[in-house]
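Exercise (ungraded).
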Amino acid sequence: MLNNYNSEDKVLLAVDCIIFGFDKEGLKVLLVKRDFEPEKGKWSLIGGFLKKEENLDQAAIRILHHLTGLNNIYMEQLYAFSKVDRDPAERTISVAYYALIDIASHSRNLIRMNAAQWHNLSSAPKLIFDHDQMVSKAIARLERRAVSKPIGFELLPEKFTMKQLQRLYEAILNKKLDKRNFISKVNSLDILIKLDEKDMTVSRKGAYLFKFDKEKYDLKIEDGFNFKI
Amino acid sequence: MLNNYNSEDKVLLAVDCIIFGFDKEGLKVLLVKRDFEPEKGKWSLIGGFLKKEENLDQAAIRILHHLTGLNNIYMEQLYAFSKVDRDPAERTISVAYYALIDIASHSRNLIRMNAAQWHNLSSAPKLIFDHDQMVSKAIARLERRAVSKPIGFELLPEKFTMKQLQRLYEAILNKKLDKRNFISKVNSLDILIKLDEKDMTVSRKGAYLFKFDKEKYDLKIEDGFNFKI
DNA sequence: TTTTAAAAGTGTTATTTATACACTATCAAA
DNA sequence: TTTGATAGTGTATAAATAACACTTTTAAAA
């Protein structure tokens, strides 16, 4: 006999994606109106079911793409949620994934598909099942992650101002940061390239644009950043 | 129709427990010889399958108790492992849990059951499936966790010496710590009670015993420890 | 043309935290 | 009484973090 697993219970395995977005208004989360029962028409995370021939990472990518058109988003596994009655229709365990993306540079896809919508974190509607709990846990993880890696760089447009970067961190950490301390901390990491170009859309003076020095970043990532701000 | 989940794939959901133990020799991991196919007779983590009527935390507790006799162990969820062919017998996703316990204070149960054995981390045998990968991930998590919470206190006998506490941290972080710096760091946290009692078993001079001040600990945990050593 | 308003840019000091480092005390056993 | 093994203790330096305010720029308005 190859195995004696036959008497074991099988369950549905869902994957739910918590996609945080960042733009000038702050942190947002991407939600869809569920188009099947149960809870049809209610707001939900982007979710679907694992198929036998894929792993969880692949399922997350497929589901996200299918419901939003988003591609090439790196998601990180968050947690497996398994309360017995979390889905009233059937015993389902859900593995949550999360990612943080720059809204502006992905909006075209989202608009085209028109299935998903951004909601401010503070004013998001109540979600189905345990999805609110998933979002809370993802926020907590994001905060912790933000201080150990310069997570923000992957979420901004290619060229960005210091102010934008600071706003991103303020949004993630949910507190005001001192401009001077923030800039000197970022500069001490030595992973930004200051461009000869200014963003003139916000102020009369204009703010220098920066881009992210991928090589230096990759070198540093090995021995671990300290990005405590 | 209550739901349209009918066409979705169902899978087996395993739970594997990585139990780290600590005694004077250092960090160990608890392993069992697998007594069913596939891979019968090979070393494995403590594992089993989720049942429909329980959640993952409950499954982990049940499985651990069933295979080792261990009770009242707080385990934390680590990660869901989902490579398609990770178990050659059947499509199985495994959610790993981990815990860290004091070997001495739990050894009676383990000896009685005699199913599980402690192995030094450095000399553990090769494990089945992706279990080695699970152990590596758990070690990495333990290290990170050790600096954000004084994790060690829950793993020592009720009364312990500073030396024991330091040894525990040295084992988790896998590096030597300076005695004076360690003690002053621990003292600055103000969560230990120094007892009027000495451990005379190790030295002629004897070392003062301490215990853990649960109340102060709980107060501190709210605004987060900084236990970076 | 001058004034104004709004954001950009820039350094220093004080405080806290982390690190490096070595000698004395105790006491049972030899 | 000597010895050996472990317990216990403090200081100085370096590094990181936190607190803090004024000047510059420039387009638009007066």
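Further reading is listed at the end of the chapter. For now, observe: Chain A has six helices and ten strands. The helical segments of chain A are 56-68, 103-113, 131-148, 162-173, 179-189, 214-222.
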